[in-house]
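FORM 7B - TANDEM STRUCTURE REPORT

SECTION 1: FIRST PROTEIN
SEQUENCE AND TOKENS:
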Amino acid sequence: MMEQKISHIFSGKIWHTAFNNERCVLEIRNEATRQVSFSALDLQQGKVLWENYQPLKSWWLGLVGLFDEYIIIHQYSSEQKPEPEGVLVIDVNSGTLVLNVADVCFHHYENNQLTVVKNSLFQTIPLDVQRQSNDSVVEIGKTLHESVQHYSEASPYFTTIFKFLYRLLGIEAQKAVDYLEISNKIIISYYIYRENLFHNYLLVTNREQKIILHEHIATTEGIGINTFTVQSDTLLYVKNENEFIGYEL
């Protein structure tokens, strides 16, 4: 069996995730309150660093990515105007706002410098998060990361995986699968269709086809892509839209 490292339920839908070494950032959308918040986790230790941080009381925020220790977020004006109109930068370790630049769009990040653009003019902004002590500096260790493969039913690989699942579980997978072989394990995310909905399951076996993990993770109207990932030696996935789960590989 695999050891569970992370299991945390958030107060909204996990809409978007970003990873960088042992850090993970989640964009959480609470449709009832129309608020967007952000949370950060330490994947190596399996703990939440901070959660439900709302840099602005707004629905119109979107996670761009996690670069070194910086979370970069775009601000939008409305659904009718989806172009970015501002950039926020948050320190991933402390969850504090580092920078808020209005009326610009994120272009790229490199060597501790943020480049933004406005009206085709580029501006480079140095970033410098002041730390209280050397103890807060994160030591970056070796991480395990592999690309998950997505196979639609038109792929010959889907047929092979379909047969594998039918022999092992007696089910007929439909539409598509996400697949990865890593750390002497086979990881498959598959769908079955019943009661007019797709039911998404996550299966982990060893090379001898012994089932290590098998659970229902979502009920949807359509098929997703990248329904799981592997970061920092950890299998990560979202269950029921609001629970973030991780197992050590």
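SECTION 2: SECOND PROTEIN
SEQUENCE AND TOKENS:
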Amino acid sequence: MQMRSTRRCAVASLLWTLIHGQLGAVVVFGPGGADRNASAPTGSLADSGWQWTGHFNAFCGVPVGRSSFLTAAHIGGEVGDRFDWNGRSYRTVGFETDAASDLRLWHVSGEFGSTTPIVLQDLRIGESVMILGRGTARGTPILAERVDDSPILAGWRWGSLDGRLRWGTNTIAHRIDGASIGLYGPLAGCAFDGGIGNDEACISLGDSGGPLFVRRSQEWQLAAIHFAVEAAFNTSETGTGENGTLFDYRGLYRQSNSAWVLEPIEGTSPVPAVFFSTRVMPRRTWLDASIAKAPAAPTLEQAADPQGPFIPAVGSNHDPVARTFTLDPSAGSTFFQLRGTAGLVIVRVHLQSGQVVIQYD
């Protein structure tokens, strides 16, 4: 899906690619293969968001409430889809969609063991950030004619799909209202200009829902959710063009108002692609209200007959993270049921250490 812009940060008219539809990944500037930045960062970047990033269908999400995770709205999804995080798989039971941005909050059955810290102050221009997303390593090189018809590396095509989580860094270059560029919601923009080292990264198709973290004091906090990226390019003014991750458009054609326009070869400064993520802080009131709408925890009921009457199970202990109830066994036959949000199901009943353990989903 594409949306036409009216201007690009007061620079140009472009078509933006909403980053969904097939997998894509964080594309890193520096050298390396498919394993580059595909495991948790270490050193000064340790605990910078990797530990909070879960998988939702082919995309990403982050737990922000006891039973709720945040992602992008335009990736879709259905109640009953799975969210995998921290070694557990959670069934979605409902969602809240922000009418003023691309954010969507999903509710799950059970609870998370912990939740992602969220910024209390909005992103600032020039701040360093960590970005994460799933999919591919970068593809084949994109060459641009610059001087004396000599081809020079300008970026990389989107490569093969592998669905892997990868990370990279960047800095905030823009903080805007998305309506000003043909999108919507409060946005933060980062440029892929190769100016901050080998870990500098850009997002590609499929990275929707991936998080952007910023370090505040001694803690990395969630600040934005990936939304859209400038990706279309062409080597001539005709044809359908291609998609890729460009750190310098000079000498290539960019899509503008449904036409291909040559980016002039002027000066020495690169003309990079820009990606945008939805800023969370300006939508904090909506987010807090939506988290509060998470369904209440289920209750366990029991009866001596499958037709009831069912009453609250006496002496049961609930572990919402493990999604279990435990209680002492009783004499005779006992039948159990759960009361709570629609779709709850008991998946296993067994004895463990002398107690009845009832697992649900």
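SECTION 3: OBSERVATIONS ON SECOND PROTEIN
Residues 2-291 form a domain with the Thrombin, subunit H fold (CATH 2.40.10).
The helical segments are 284-291.

SECTION 4: SIGNATURE
Preparer initials: ____
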